[in-house]
């Protein structure tokens, strides 16, 4: 069991015990993890209207500096578009036009349009998360997230949040820890 106290006043249960609180890609990805790793991930039901990070943290007394946002970035070079997900602490912003653009070998990088991010990930906007991303996508994890004892992330839907150790986020499929990704 891990420390799920980052969820503030919420009571978490093992995520695989409540697949109804997970987006389909998230549930499939958690089932594919080694069982000891999957057991480190907790889920708690929330009011979907409070899914945005600042509102969630205020409503449930979760520390903002232990919430991690997952943003989908589209990098373009000519007609080629490459996608990546970035996991950074909510108190920072992903260095999209610097580190991410270079990692994607793109001339231009920006946040992916909402409709594209939702369609490509199979997750709800506001619940897109690092677990269950499309195969082949890099997951760029800020070193501060990787070093955190526990972080709160989305669950693939707006009606719940996940808690997991930062080191597990750094070991998810496609994950690359990057110093200074969040600024």
UniProtKB/TrEMBL annotation:
Highest taxon in the source lineage: Bacteria
Recorded GO MF terms: aminoacyl-tRNA deacylase activity
YbaK/aminoacyl-tRNA synthetase-associated domain location: 48-167
Pfam families assigned to the protein according to its UniProt record, in alphabetical order: tRNA_edit
Record protein name field: Prolyl-tRNA editing enzyme YbaK/EbsC (Cys-tRNA(Pro) deacylase)
